[in-house]
């Protein structure tokens, strides 16, 4: 393959005066000259700095070839001299910008609103990263604070993924249908997630999707809604280490296996739940549970009929995994619920979910234990 033969990459920039451009890049930006020609009247120069290699080619038509060049220099901003401008101009209108090599994660304040999404049709899906199909479950993104995606991989087999990580506050993956095999940094051998299983991907944990069943469906919840996904070609997964207690930016990796879970009382009247353990692993930041209509002998504290409830939390997201029922609210109206439907319940809005036979819901909340309104 070509990538195996490439040793370096040059970015070619046109300039009207090679001497002026070389002088600017070497004296003000710290580039080093690696090649220049011809010696008696230079018109071409190659310069480098850090991982950047520039090839300057002097041409009279450079100013007619489109917008000026832009260089973005990633720096430790705290080490810059006081009063250093964050943007300045070089020869031929070249724009130089200084930016943080690792900018702070920005989490928008968000909004509280009722969002109701039906299962949808084929046309609602669009292609995203690594050829996966995405369906947006919170089109408004709640002011940019949260994203919820229903992800589909139609064809089974190896997935065209690569080792990568996400700069996030929170990211949760729930397997809705089928199975998927994923490798995680320092978490032993690759794991296979089956329907009902859930994973907490702590901030910046390296991972890679290896293969999936035909028609795999997962639900992904992330904060903030728009976040960076970085590839890490330097890491090979699995790493050969298994460090279950490793902490990644304050969170531990969680792999919840549905077949091994136990059921307990839910805060939602008329339901019981299996908790994924994500609340503990995030120190109370978020909770993920599967709810089902109460079955069998009574659980202590579990009412047999659904009641109205309201919360004062940051997020309460629900998705119907199976069964049908009715959502009722004095302020949000009445809505029939079918498999694949989802909704966000805004803070302080009352609701009642009627327990029904074979009804199962996915519940994601911030914080893990929602305070009552």
Explained architecture:
This protein is mainly beta. The protein has three domains: 11-100, 2,3-Dihydroxybiphenyl 1,2-Dioxygenase, domain 1 (Roll); 122-253, Sandwich (Jelly Rolls), CATH 2.60.120.10; 260-366, Jelly Rolls. The chain is built from two helices and 32 strands. The strands form eight sheets. It has a seven-stranded antiparallel β-sheet with strand order 8-30-27-32-26-25-24. Strands 9-10-11-19-14-17-23 form a seven-stranded antiparallel β-sheet, with no helix packed on it. It has a four-stranded mixed β-sheet with strand order 1-4-3-2, covered by helices on one side. β9 (126-127) and β10 form a beta hairpin. The longest helix is centred in the first third of the chain and has 10 residues, at 18-27.
Concise account of the structure shown:
By secondary structure, this protein is mainly beta. It has helices at 18-27, 278-281; strands at 11-15, 32-37, 44-49, 52-58, 70-75, 87-89, 95-100, 115-117, 126-127, 133-136, 147-153, 157-158, 164-167, 170-177, 179-184, 191-194, 198-200, 207-212, 216-223, 228-231, 247-248, 251-252, 254-256, 264-265, 271-275, 287-293, 315-322, 325-329, 333-337, 342-344, 352-353, 360-366. It starts with 10 loop residues before the first strand and ends in a 7-residue tail after the last strand.
């Amino acid at each position: 393959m070509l990538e195996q033969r490439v040793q370096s990459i040059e970015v070619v920039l046109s300039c009207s005066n090679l001497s002026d451009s070389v002088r600017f890049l070497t004296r003000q930006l710290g580039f080093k000259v690696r090649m220049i020609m011809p010696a008696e009247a230079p018109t071409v120069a190659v310069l480098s700095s850090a991982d950047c290699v520039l090839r300057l080619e002097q041409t009279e038509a450079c100013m007619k070839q489109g917008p000026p060049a832009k260089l973005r220099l990633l720096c430790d901003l705290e080490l810059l001299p006081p009063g250093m401008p964050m943007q300045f101009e070089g020869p031929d209108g070249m724009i130089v910008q200084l930016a943080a090599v690792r900018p702070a994660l920005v989490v928008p304040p968000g909004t509280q609103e009722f969002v109701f999404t039906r299962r949808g049709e084929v046309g609602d899906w669009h292609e995203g990263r690594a050829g996966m199909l995405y369906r947006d479950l919170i089109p408004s993104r709640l002011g940019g604070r949260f994203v919820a995606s229903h992800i589909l991989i139609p064809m089974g087999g190896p997935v065209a993924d690569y080792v990568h990580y996400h700069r996030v506050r929170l990211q949760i993956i729930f397997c809705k249908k089928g199975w998927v095999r994923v490798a995680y940094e320092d978490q032993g051998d690759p794991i296979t997630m089956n329907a009902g299983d859930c994973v907490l991907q702590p901030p910046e944990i390296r991972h890679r999707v290896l293969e999936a069943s035909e028609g795999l469906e997962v639900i992904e919840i992330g904060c903030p809604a728009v976040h960076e996904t970085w590839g890490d070609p330097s890491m090979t997964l699995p790493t050969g280490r298994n460090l279950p207690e490793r902490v990644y930016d304050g969170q531990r990796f969680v792999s919840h296996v549905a077949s091994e879970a136990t059921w307990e009382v839910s805060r939602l009247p008329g339901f019981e739940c299996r908790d994924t353990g994500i609340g503990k692993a995030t120190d109370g930041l978020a909770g993920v549970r599967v709810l089902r209509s109460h079955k069998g002998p009574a659980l202590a504290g579990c009412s047999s009929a659904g009641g109205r409830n309201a919360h004062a939390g940051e997020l309460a997201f629900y998705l119907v995994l199976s069964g049908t029922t009715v959502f009722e609210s004095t302020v949000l109206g009445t809505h029939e619920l079918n498999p694949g439907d989802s909704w966000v319940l805004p803070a302080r809005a009352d609701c009642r979910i009627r327990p029904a036979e074979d009804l199962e819901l996915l519940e994601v909340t911030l914080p893990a234990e929602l305070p009552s309104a």
